[in-house]
Fold:
Amino acid sequence: MKFIYHGLAACSLLLNACSNSDSDRGEIHVNFDHVIAGAELVPSEIRYTNAAGNEYAITRLEYIVSDIILETAAGKRVDLTEVHYRNALSNATRSLSAHIPGGEYSVLHFTFGIDGGKNETGALPSLEHFNNMAWPSPMGGGYHYMRMEGLFRIPDGEGSFLTHTGPSAGADFSFDVSLPLHLSVNGGSWGITVVMDINQWYDAPTVYDFNDRGSIMGNADAQFTLQENGTAAFSISHAGRHDHDAHEHEGEENHEETAGEEQNHEEHADD
Amino acid sequence: MKYWLLPLLLLGACSGGDKGTTPASPHNPTPYALDVPAGFPIPEIPADNPLTIEGIELGRLLFADPILSVDSTVACASCHLRESAFADARRFSKGVNGLTSRNSMPLFNLLWSPSFFWDGRSASLEDQAIHPVQNPIEMGEDWSTVTAKLTRHPTYPRLFAQAFGANKPIGQKLAVQAIAQFERTLVSADTKYDRWLAGTEEFTPEEERGFLLFHTEQADCFHCHVAPLFTDNQFHNNGLDLDPADPGLARQTEGRLDRGKFKTPSLRNIEYTAPYMHDGRFQTLQEVIEHYNSGFHRSNLTDPLMLIRPELNLNLKEKQSLISFLKTLSDPRFNRP
Structure:
């Protein structure tokens, strides 16, 4: 199945080529954002609480979405891209862009993670961000769907949680997300913002307690719970004209809230 | 066809695929065909500093020449020794004015690194090479003096002209470009592990056990030491100190939670690069593994990947297996004296 993702660039070229003559063709930007309790995620010291009562902080949030498709009201499916890597701490990964035919669009589909039939070691191009998501072959092979990590308060200080979802023992815990929307494309530039509600992974239908879940890459039960909870973690907050302001921070990095101005550092003798 | 072969073929086409070609005329340096190991990412080489045989050769000479230091006693190669995979076997390196405060990093597979120094403060090899020269402890020289020395040298002006053209001024910019070109050719992937991956050599049962420990959550090395480079090129606090004396990454970001974070080193050639950690505090791989097994400090600075469990609980046999696996990452041909 390796050729599927390696063919990405070629497919995009073909898509573009097919409809250059289409005057109502539009440009679509799909953003992936993250909230907790209704507010934008801020990587920081402990400030959040989930349904289990864990007080926690997020230190890492990376994930892969694949087979991202827009469907028209008439049921025609338009491929946007095959795989997208998102790092919540890097705005450069916030959006994917594609050109689409004009028309009335009513659903955005994507797979959270990679479908089991395609998720094998080496299926994605050897790029640092994909390699860093590797799910080693002794654990089933392929790629993590998500690496969400952080700290939470325990009686004598801080413990950590590693919400690493992926193909435990080769099983498929990826899941499909379909989000209704109304988007009428007639040329121009359009935007869709998908929001991940982080607490949803931990709150319902099954309460997920960090005290009971440590390293979970080999824990099929934890993977199943997260698959069920995660299916409801996504919603669309915006579908309409492309909000150019949303891109003004492209390329910048989100630093933790204490990040300050870059200083002129004196030379240190160290390497 | 593997997608990553394409740029190599293109490079090969440009250069006739012959690394040993006689240097061309001064204004037409010979492109260098880089061998990218199977499975490695496509490297990004700056468009304004392509690899050429003449540039690499100039860089190799500059790297080994103490002319870059204030008293002509210290070269890059003084602290980055080939027999140590271009690291330094001394805990701290000796510069023109005392000892450095961190252990010299090994130099290989730098093409795939987005940042340099233990705290990642340089974003390119060209920028990195500027600093040791003017560091008061390391080389203690200023680049204007280096420029004067190189300009009046009997052979360097000709070599600069061959590499970059006679009309470009000799100085810091071209010198660091040449050094960066040389460093980009330091590719190391000729190991038992790579041959095992290619199916041409078998692991011993102990190496196999070590591989499995490494690549499962039992020893959980793989999350940071990611194949094929055996680094994630990111920054982690691995619990060396409760209150880190060296701020590490926090010197750049000023983030409270970045204190004591250092760049993940590659584990390739780890057999040759003792001592270990940014401050060279561990002399042996046994000490390193014991640190991760039971010796690290727990605080809100410690990486969540380590904080997840009290200790690894590896027994002696498992620790030995891990070391056996780590030694399959040695590239003796790269590490020749």
